[in-house]
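Work through what follows:
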Amino acid sequence: VVIDCTNDDSVADYYAQWLNSGANVISPGRRASAGPMERYNEIREAVRSNSVEWQYESSVGSALPIVSTLRDLLQTGDDVQLLRGCLSGTMAYVFHTMDESTPFSEAVRQAVENDFAENNIREDLSGVDAARKVVVLARELGMNVSVEDVVVEPLLPDEIRNKEYTGTKDEVNAAILEDLKSLDEPLLKRWKEERDNGRRLRYKFYIDVATGICQCKLEGVDNTDTLFRLRDNENLIAFETSRYTTSPLIVKGAAAGPELAAAGMFADLLRMGRGFIGSQS
């Protein structure tokens, strides 16, 4: 079993070769599962042709059973129509934490200190990381989707997204956090507008199977929305299907931090082990 914790495209390029050689692959990163479609199809073909496994449950929601739940629905013949929720632990923490006394930049700093953020915090705040997770799920649904197809509302202006930062990881993060202070006032204004209308800011995703539209955006939600009570490090996904019509199937729980990511990878490894034991009996 190869467990790829690098989140590196150059490593993902080897997946098909490893699978064709009879190795199984676990990848908590999203470079392969949300990467170029040609490479994704090659990996899928290698899995089919060699009776091996490629597991990436932990690439969406850490240890939450999101990918496996979606597969179970599809394999039992359910018609999945819409997925919605929040797939970013960083965004969940930031918009749960920020208020009139805790500005946006401070909430982001706390998310970084708690190890909730990606190594490059701009991937979280630009919406790119959430978009990659959306692509992983959309492809499970059979949609021919790449990151470029996801309609993303970034929180970062171009001058921060495209700026060249130098130094150590801590120095780069410190510089980014300093630049984020320019967003404190406009985001506080939006936060107040939503609060005054009984809503809370959440970074929400949608996958609409019928229209093919995938999007990630900052949205005010009211108390009828499942995201209204989202806590500080949680992910939530609502599955709207032909079976779950009156009330969606919801998977919700803590999904940020290294311990949960490790638990998700270990669950993938155990899943493979159970499959191997079953095939030998």
